[in-house]
Amino acid sequence: MAFQLNKDLCLGCGACAYTCLYHAISPADANATCYEIYEKACVECGQCSHVCPNSAISAPEGWRKIKKVTIDQGKCTGCSVCRHICPANAPQGELKKTFDIDQQKCFQCGACAKKCRFGAIEVEYA
User: Is the pTM of this model over 0.85?
Assistant: First the structure.
């Protein structure tokens, strides 16, 4: 389930689309008077809802804010899938060696944890 945008509250400012690093938000019409969220592209990071000046974007039911993302060094195989999925380039390391998360770059979207085939990425919720 993706974040929801209330079109009645949308001002058409585009702050949400600018903030979304996954390109899950775009204009709903040719004049860009309102925006829409594409559910398949949304990773539920919540960044869009934080920047919306009119509170037009809400979290899906049961959503929990991520506090911290880390990599279990004992489970990481160095496959680099996490690095390729992350638009912030937060996972750092060398191929076939263990990776780590640069906490200064990570904006806690959790996309890397969803893609990790080895269960090496741990998510701590607020």
Answer: no
Pairing of strands 66-71, 121-125: antiparallel
Which of 60, 57, 38 lies closest to 49 in space, CA to CA?
57
Nearest-angstrom CA–CA distance, 12 and 121: 36
Of 45, 37, 106, 41, which Cα lies nearest the Cα of 71? 106
Q: Are the CB atoms for 38 and 1 separated by under 8 Å?
A: no
Domains of the chain: 4-58 (3.30.70.20), 66-125 (3.30.70.20)
Q: What is the pLDDT of residues 78-116, one digit of tens each?
A: 999 999 999 999 999 999 999 999 999 999 999 999 999
- Using the 8-state DSSP alphabet, how is residue 97 labeled? S
